[in-house]
Amino acid sequence: MIIDDEPGIARMLCIMFENAGYQAVAFHSGEDAIKCATTFAPDLLICDLNMPGINGRACAERISQVLPACQVLFLTGDYLALAKAQHADRAKGVEQEFLTKPQPPLVLLREAKRLLSPTRKKPAADLASAEESVSATHCR
């Protein structure tokens, strides 16, 4: 499940993951993604950190409450928001996965594969630093 308020980015990510063999659906708002999360039941949530309405962290938290096995990867082009989120996570002793935008497709696919792996490893240094009438993008 991909959540990004920028339709072009959401669609591109959806197509990229489908071409790599994943089932993917994209949403342009956290609210719509939350409504459809239990229907789609994603194994991986790729979520923009900053979005209008419910932000990426709050959206991921709500989805994780009903789908605790769902892995989460945050994407952001806002380096200040990234620094704040990482600082808050360290203070709480929480480990979240973040990647900055833009990333080459192979990096995103490698990180998704790692997060979905049953023997999940720590991130490498270069990676560390719904079928309803909502705004879902179905790539095919």
Overview of the molecule:
The chain has helices spanning 7-19, 30-40, 56-66, 79-92, 105-116, 125-128, and strands at 2-3, 26-27, 44-48, 71-76, 97-100, 136-137. The protein is α/β, with parallel strands linked by helices and 140 residues long. It has one domain: 3-Layer(aba) Sandwich (Rossmann fold), CATH 3.40.50.2300. Strands 5-4-3-1-2-6 form a 6-stranded mixed β-sheet, with helices on both faces. α2 (30-40) packs parallel to α3. The longest helix has 14 residues, at 79-92. The protein starts with a strand and ends with a strand.
Helix-strand layout with pairing:
Layout: E1 2-3, H1 7-19, E2 26-27, H2 30-40, E3 44-48, H3 56-66, E4 71-76, H4 79-92, E5 97-100, H5 105-116, H6 125-128, E6 136-137
Parallel strand pairs: 1-2, 1-3, 3-4, 4-5
Antiparallel strand pairs: 2-6
Helix pairs in contact: 2-3
Shape label = globular
- The third-level CATH topology is Rossmann fold
Largest sheet: 6 strands, mixed
Q: What is the CATH class designation?
A: Alpha Beta
Overall mean confidence score, pLDDT = 82
Q: How far apart are the termini? A: 15 Å
Overall tally of structural domains: 1
Q: Considering DSSP H and I runs of 4 or more, what fraction of the residues is helical? A: 40-55%
Strand content: 15-25%
Instruction: State the low-pLDDT regions, or none.
Output: 121-135
- Computed over alpha carbons, the radius of gyration is 14 Å
Number of helices: 6
Order of helices and strands: EHEHEHEHEHHE
Count the E strands: 6
Structural class: alpha/beta
CATH superfamily: Response regulator
The CATH architecture classification is: 3-Layer(aba) Sandwich
User: If strands are numbered along the chain, what order do they take across the biggest sheet?
Assistant: 5-4-3-1-2-6
